[in-house]
Automatic annotation (TrEMBL):
InterPro entries: Aldolase_II/adducin_N_sf (IPR036409), Cro/C1-type_HTH (IPR001387), Lambda_DNA-bd_dom_sf (IPR010982), ThiN (IPR019293). PROSITE patterns: HTH_CROC1. It comes from the Archaea. This is Thiamine-phosphate synthase family protein. Residues 20-48 form the HTH cro/C1-type domain. It comes from Halohasta litorea.
Length: 301
């Protein structure tokens, strides 16, 4: 009797770890860095690198496995993907391959009696919340990398600081919105991100995003300084720009609703308010995800 979990341990995991170790080394990570990222010993990395660990060629040749290895290696090497997200993505693929797929076929080869049995394996939910939250945080990281590598972005940061935020698909509160703890600040001409994206850490940018979402299908936003020339640059680049009343802070949702109600909005667009007594003028870039929002800013900077 052979359990499908044994195939995962004996065939799938050594294969994908070997492929990941090779892919990370190809991305110029040191043996120690690969060991740290994968949570294995340096001697294990050495064995994988020198082909001393046997791979299951059927698993190694599967396009989904190959694609996953490349995506995970890219994410881990750049820091866009956390180890938690990498684990979840691999777990999801394992359960997919167990469910009447490649691993199930290998299991039937090892246990021919299963061919005639009607067995339905339970699987992990590919749309689990932890997977979704990690994907959102990864998206924010990619957007932040675009912003911090952008020449001159620091000059667009308002006095209150900027924040790049993205929310879960079913977001209703600020706890469902990921952003930068402490915001992004201009420190000696450099846009500085103090910490890794987390949920529930942005009150202002998250509130604006949630208010917009009640009227428009967006999932990400970024606040930057207001400047008439910048608004004109967005318009010339093809982005819709809409002004709203900065004085109506207690009625943010209805104010934004009135502003966007009749506007023909581009997929990524700009909301802005020109300030008031004790209120700094701010522009808000809204769009489908954090990298797209960041790219819009880069296109006019």
């Amino acid at each position: 009797m052979k359990f499908i979990e044994e195939l995962v341990v004996e065939d799938f995991l050594p294969t994908i770890r070997s492929m990941l170790a090779e892919a990370l080394r190809d991305r110029e990570l040191t043996q120690r860095e690969v060991a740290d990222v994968l949570g294995i010993s340096q001697s294990a990395v050495s064995k994988y690198a020198h082909g001393e660990v046997a791979r299951n060629e059927q698993i190694a040749a599967d396009d989904r496995v190959v694609d996953l290895v490349e995506n995970v290696a890219d994410g881990l090497a750049t820091g866009d993907m956390s180890r938690v997200q990498a684990l979840v993505e691999i777990e999801v693929l394992i359960r997919q391959l167990e469910d009447g797929d490649l691993l199930a076929d290998l299991h039937e080869e090892a246990m021919p009696a299963l061919v005639e049995a009607d067995i339905d394996f339970s699987v992990h939910d590919p749309d689990s919340r932890i997977r979704t939250t990690e994907q959102v945080r990864s998206s924010v990281r990619r957007g932040l990398r675009t912003l911090t590598s952008m020449s001159g972005f620091a000059t667009l940061i308002p006095n209150v600081g900027s924040n790049l935020v993205e929310c879960l698909p079913d977001a209703t509160t600020v706890d469902d919105v990921a952003g930068v703890p402490g915001r992004i600040f201009d420190i000696k001409g450099r846009a500085t991100v103090p910490s890794d994206p987390e949920f529930g850490v942005s009150e202002h940018a998250a509130s604006v995003l949630l208010a917009v979402r009640n009227h428009v299908d967006v999932q990400a936003g970024l606040n930057i300084t207001y400047d008439p020339d910048l608004i004109e640059a967005f318009e010339q680049a093809g982005y819709t720009t809409v002004a709203f009343d900065s004085e109506a802070r207690e009625e943010l949702e209805s104010t934004i609703g009135e502003a966007v109600a009749d506007a023909e909005l581009s997929e990524t667009f700009v909301l802005y308010q020109t300030g008031g007594f004790g209120i700094e003028p701010i522009s808000y870039i809204l769009g489908p995800d954090a990298p797209t929002v960041a790219a819009a800013v880069r296109s006019v900077n």
